[in-house]
Fold:
Amino acid sequence: MNLATFAVGAVQLALVVVGGPLLLGLMRRVRSRLEGRDGPPITQPWRDIAKLAHKQRTRPTESSWIFSAAPLVLVATAATVATLAPLIALTPPLAASTDFIAVIFVLLVGSVALALAALDTGTAFGGMGASRALTIGALVEPALLVAVLALSLPLHSTNLVAIVADGSRHASVLVGPSHLLALASFIVVILAESGRLPVDNPSTHLELTMIYEALILEYSGPDLALVTLGESMRLAIWLGLFVNLVAPAGVAANAGAAALVLGLVAVAAKVALVGTIVAVYEVTTAKLRLFRLPELLAGGFILALLGVVTGAVMR
Amino acid sequence: MSAVALLAGLGVLAALAAFAPRARRVQLVATILVAVEVVGAIVAIHVLVIDHPLAGHTTSLLPITGLHIDLTPLGALFTLTTAVVAFAATIHWVGYRRHAMSSVGASCAFALFVTSLLLVPAAGDIVTFLVLWEIMALTSLALVAHDHALRDEARQAAWWYGAMTQGGAALITLGLVVLGAHAKDPSFASIAASAHHLPGATRAAVFLALFIGFAAKAGLVPAHVWLPRAHAEAPAPASALLSGAMVNLGIYGIVLTRTLLGVGPTWWWLVAGFFGVISALYGSLYAATSTDLKRLLAYSTSDNMGLVVIGLAASGFFFAKHPAASSLALIASLVLVTAHALYKSTLFLGAGSVQYATHERNLDQLGGLARTMPVTSVAVVIGALSVAALPPLNGFSAEWLVVQSLVHGLAGADPVTTVATAVFVAALALTGGLTIVAFVKAVGIGFFGRARSEQAAHAREVPVSMRIGPGITATACVVFGVAPGLTLSAITRASATVAPNRSGMTATLAGFHLGALRGAVDPLALALGAVAATLVVAALRQSRGPAGAAKLRSFEPWGSGRVLTSARMQYTATSFAEPLQRVFDDVLAPQHDLDVSHAVESRYYIERVAYVSANDDVVERRLFRPVLALARWWGVRARGIANGSVHRYLAYGFVVLVLALVVVS
Amino acid sequence: MTTFANALASAAVVVTVGAVVVLWRHRLRSIVLALAVQGVALAVTAALLAGHEHDRVLFAVALLVLAVKAVVIPGLLVRVVAATPGARESDPLVNVPASLVVAGLLTLAAFIAARPIVALVGGPTGRLVPLGLATVLIGFFVMVARRRALSQVVGLLLVDNGIALVAFLVTSGVPVIVELGSSLDVLFGVVVLRVLLARLTAAGFSDLDQLRSLHD
Structure:
């Protein structure tokens, strides 16, 4: 633990904070273009956040402390993970204890806080959003943890930095079938965790189909700005982890300035690319019915399980 | 030894103090009980610090073999955990007495229950163990049956609990007696020394008998059916002890079985792991779909004990090939047991406070308590987030360790172990997700939102002692969650009673480091980082926007264009769990009954819609009900045999006598 | 970990994943597509083994597998599907999530059951046998759990592909004549089934449970 690692953490945090809303803007822009619209500029989410930040804060009449606290917790947990995860370099602060499972659970704290806040609003929509989001979250969990188990097989460690470093050193790990299966299931997990199609339509406000939007329906002003920021940071983190597990090329191996700049550019480019792919996929697909989702998530689980079996077989 | 005698003596004194006049009774008993708990804690800490068992023997108290005390570090860990939980429960009780549990019988039973809970892990031989075990079972039964005159459910609960606990005790007695018969004396030490001379089949039979007996106490499926009934019906301080201390002793029993019999063949632990997985999944699923707050907690206890048994099973079958992972799994289970004791007692005490304030356990009738009962609700939120294994609370570090032991145990595992480990991880994950649903529901529906009933709307914060009780355990959840290293050396020593520690694991104040097994986690760093970030973001939020009083405006929430007048438009616990219930329809097999009565004039007009949805325990319905029905059928049949005629009874005796003569000759 | 071992394992994994996809998807067209991909993966497996062992005959077998299992048989089935556009396995006997969990358990069971074979054969090929065995088991399960006549045929073909995969891995290549024989057998069987399917569809049956009415 030294100053250089904290510098890495600060750069990562800055990248995720600044880049998260831009990623959201990029994905919206790609979608609009493919749907034949011009669409708002990529910086639109940032403009929205800036606008909302100057408004008055509001809260439902009968809400309690959790309603005000949840946006803070959402952003704070995302910021913690953004600082500690190996996004642009293999030397984030406290690399030895950057555990994959810990990262997942810290992000989960944000989701739980938001769900509790939604129930705190005392409306039908809040409950609906919380209920659906958590049901999906519960069903995603097996796929997620078994995928982590498959990824941990080569090193027998769930240390995230070690896993990414191993991939960047040995290309054979990256093309191993166990690794690929785990990542395939990871795709399903990311789509579900970050509320993208076909799990949830991020641009819907149709009352009976929305999941995530129902969850945050009562937020406005600075709180909504925080929630938007937090969600976009989470999306950026999930995609950042994904690209680093798929192709860690460019991730800085040390905290040197040149390596960091290269890592920053490489990760930003890769995440932008994957974000574009997700957006294109979203245009071509339709939302699944809520009760068809278990099929998708069970599929993700089976892929991860096959990953574990293949990894164990090939030892 | 004298300290243990002091403990027992004080316990008896507390029980006698229950006969004091009503006005000061509970305060008196509670004061003495606090002394009992403090002595228990000191003895346990002493044993854990000197890392040497505390042994003693006296023939004056019990006939035949006398009283044999042997408090190992393992036992001391359980005694210490019980002491902390019992301390919180006793303090809570002082306030709770105005609601219930103030009679002579209840006070006496509570005092003896606490004392026996503290002493069971100190038992050094079979007789002492069984006697203390029975005292614990009977006193807890009395507490479960506390409301028998008020509610039929309490009577039912007592029946179920009594049957399960006595059935379990019979199996435990059987197993221990078989072991004792082959050892030179009935002390656990000599049983452990001689058990490996037993033939394999006998050992296996003893293992199964003891495992089933202790699993019934720990509330593993399918012997869990008493748990949701007894935990729900017992008064809050008692149910906190049932779930926070007594079920732990079921786990203690399973660990004791391993120390007595050795690790044994892999299949033992596959059987144990199977029941662990079933319990974890089943318990969490029912917790997620329950609407009764205390039943929810009880199912979650079953689920957590399942996770602990998964850890013990992993420790058992990693033992031969991967001793480090085996040690890690054992330590992880013990960490989880202690963590569970703390958060579940917080939750049960909190649920008791809610019952005190609202006379209501049904989540569908609660809501809005966070504003009216701030202290209680903060304690309950902390407990709930701990069960949900969210960092930086103590449930997280415990479950993290369990997962780590599984991840590392996969190294060099044979296919059977690999498969079992993969199943364990999947079960752990699904359980974790369902537990989050269950506890977000419990807290979000019960404590946040708007009050769903008159009682909930008029709830007032409970007396100060009822805030302190759960406050203590909730604080412990936070402290041991943020700095899990505090307890590790004690738990490592406790695990060394069972098997030498090979995990190479170390702990700093901040977290766990697994040494040669690569892995580490620092909840303290995560907590500090997250708290710092929260403060920064909060400051930013404050600094933006209009200044002063104009900052925060409350408004009517969105009701699709209408004004939300009724709190009944909120989601309820039932509707919250509905998607999950539909997903797991085949497993839960809930019963719905929709009755639409039409108006006489036209079928287009609906007069009344009655909807009944029952989600009762499927194991109870499908497994135990038929067995009970069979028993009842047999009972009715058997009436014909005993028709009251003296001649017929004499004839039975005569026939038996003749048969006996024939057989003997 | 050599490239060969990785590639071989990946191909074998695709065969198993193909079987899982058959359980996963509802649209019959996707199911047939999964079968075709599985055929390609099987051919790739054989080709990899052929390249590794420098065995020209095995290479011929790979080509044969490609032709029959990846082109001809799926082609025949596609034409059945085309007869009823948009046909779906809409209401399987065992629902999809449960089927997938069963598939996972079957894979784990195969992993345990294949221990003797793995121990016997060993090496980078033998250890992949569990994947083939899992494919066989999942194929059987498809026949048990799916209603559509076409799904039954696909289930049978999954079993066959699984057996073929095990055969390749265990013997590092079946004698060409055996593979030729079995491939032609299967092809013949599929032709017969395809004719039968066409007749059934013409007669208005597509759900095999409806055939129960013939019982009385």
Observations:
- The longest helix of chain A spans residues 3-34.
- Chain A touches chain C at residues 172-173, 175-177, 180-181, 294-295, 297-299, 301-303, 305-306, 309-310, 312-314 (CB under 8 Å).
